[in-house]
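Give me structure tokens for this 65-residue protein.
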Amino acid sequence: ELRDEDAPAALAIGINLVRVGKPAEAITWLERAERQDPSSASAIVHRIDALTDLGQIEQAELAFY
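Here you go.
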């Protein structure tokens, strides 16, 4: 069980979910990592990747900016 403040673990889970083709599940973990560490560029980049995989281009663009 992960603690709420465990941003690195949430980020790792999110990245792995994107890699295995489960972007919808990944977004939840990546958002959690981003909430815990707002300066995490990795969480943002991988969330953009997940949104793009889901075809949510406008959301990905908003996340980019």
